[in-house]
Known about the structure:
Elements: H1 4-22, H2 29-32, H3 38-46, E1 51-53, E2 67-71, H4 85-90, H5 93-103, E3 107-110, H6 117-121, H7 132-142, E4 149-151, E5 156-159, E6 162-163, E7 171-174, E8 177-179, E9 188-193, E10 198-203, E11 209-212, H8 220-223, H9 228-240, E12 248-251, H10 284-306, E13 310-311, E14 317-318, H11 321-335, H12 338-358, H13 365-378, H14 380-396, H15 402-417
Parallel strand pairs: 1-12, 2-3, 2-12, 3-11
Antiparallel strand pairs: 4-8, 5-7, 6-9, 9-10, 10-11, 13-14
Amino acid sequence: MRNAAPILILLVLVGLAALALFARPRENDFDHSPLGSKGLQVWLEAKGIPVIRSDPHFVRARAEISMRVLFLPLENDEAAASGTDEEVESAGPESWGSDSRRYGLPTLIIMPKWRGSLLRDGIARQADLLPLEEVQEELRRIAPKDLRINRNDPGFAEAHPGTSWGQPARIALYQAQTFDLASLPRACKEVVGTQTGALIVQCENYHQVYLLSDPDLLNNHGLALAENAAFAVSLIQRLRGIDERRPVYLDTAGNPLEARKPVDEGRTYERSGSDLKRFFAFPLSIIWGVLLVVVAICFWRGFWRFGPPLKDASGHIELSKSAAIEATARLLRLSGNDGRMVSQFVLHLLADKAQLLFGPGAGNEAGIDRLFKRLARRDHAAAQALHSSAQALIDRGHLMKRADLHRNLETFRKSLGSIDFGSR
């Protein structure tokens, strides 16, 4: 049972290493979730439309992109699911609208609909929908205050939206979220709509800013329904321009754009506690895992080879006797001094016999003398032969040649086997 502890510790360490290597969270889990936009990127690229994603450490230039697509962040307490706190704070809808007016950049702003709890549950429920009041509050920041949002009854519904470019399509949405046509200001027009309301509107004072009421039309979950994917491609192509070849910019950071491509110069960045995570991200996690496995193997090897410290009767901690003898014998063999090893073997063997007869305290020179005296009283000749061969090996074993050493050792073995030590 002594070896069970190091084996258990080794298994725990190996399990932790495997967890660090294979169970590490992906950096873009939100993009791959039902609410993310990874599917939109893959689908557009499959249709020949290049896509670039935002990077909080890299500023994009207006001339690099043809269109900007922005998903408004989820509720504030769940916003970290799609980015860091710093990114969310910088994602101001006012700056997005000003960039669109300044650069004449088509910008599609997508209203939120779901709580971040949907990412944990994995099942869309009524409780996972954002309250309309919160969505309306976000809408007031980027659109005329009279524009309102409605939601259909629970359940999936299909529609054939009318578009300004006449592209037929059959879309499907769960509890569709639309702009109220009755509240549509005169300065705003419906770009895409259904019988129940407008899906996309554009207002004159906002130039090329388009507002999409329901994110399920473009997120990973929605693209798999009906003809939503085909409709998304035609929508993006129409808004960016048929002849455009520059990529579409999927922006989740909301950083302002530059008028021209910035010069690659050294910059000073503010560091935060979240930067520490980079030391454990892939591929550094592999290095940490390998180090953990190496430490575990070294610990196990050292613990198993010599064993844990043992306590004798007096309470002093000593190394395992068998381990000490094995270590000493190995050192003697490596040094080529077999004679000294044989001498110690004979001495220890006689000491063990003395302890067997007279108790634990007799494993010394006095105990060995007492042993020979006891044997002499029973059989003087046999005791004398054993004493002579043992004394020769103990005193002169390290000086003997290999043949003499083997001959004397064989004599000692036969003498020892011919004697009956009896009991205490």
